[in-house]
Amino acid sequence: MVLYRPVVCQQCSSEYCTNRNSRCPHCLEVLVMAHRYIYYVMNTNVISDGDYDKLEAQARAVLPDTSPVHGVGSSLADSYTTEQVNKAYFILNLQKE
């Protein structure tokens, strides 16, 4: 498994892999999609269903209808961007520390 470094958001300049308080729309979208990847593709979870629902609701409130957070989760790995997968692996690595 490859370990991924934090990525700096091009929209808000935060390291959204390490800054859990960053709530720019792009960071929220990547975070939600990373948790979907962990849940649907990797068949595990790192946050409770309630916490995920709150995060997803927050993202849906600020993202346009064209955002993938308005769709349903997918178990197909190809449904996720490299950025979202990198974030998922980074989250999992944080859980191991």
CATH class: Mainly Alpha
Main β-sheet: number of strands, strand sense, barrel status? none
Counted by DSSP, the helix tally is: 3
Which regions have little confidence, pLDDT < 50, spanning 5+ residues?
A: none
SSE order, one letter for each helix or strand: HHH
Q: How many structurally independent domains?
A: 1
Q: Can you give the mean pLDDT?
A: 82
**Helix proportion of residues, in percent?**
40-55%
- Remind me, CATH topology? Helix Hairpins
Keywords for this entry:
97 residues; mainly alpha; Helix Hairpins; 3 helices; 0% strand; globular
Description:
The chain is mainly alpha-helical. It has a single domain (25-96), classed as Helix Hairpins (Orthogonal Bundle). It is 47% helix and 0% strand. It has helices at 25-41, 49-62, 82-96. Helix 1 (25-41) crosses helix 3. The longest helix has 17 residues, at 25-41. The protein starts with 24 loop residues before the first helix and ends with a helix. The relative contact order is 0.21. The model has no long low-confidence stretch (mean pLDDT 82).
What is this entry, summarized?
This protein is mainly α. The chain has helices spanning 25-41, 49-62, 82-96.
Write the layout of secondary structure elements.
Elements: H1 25-41, H2 49-62, H3 82-96
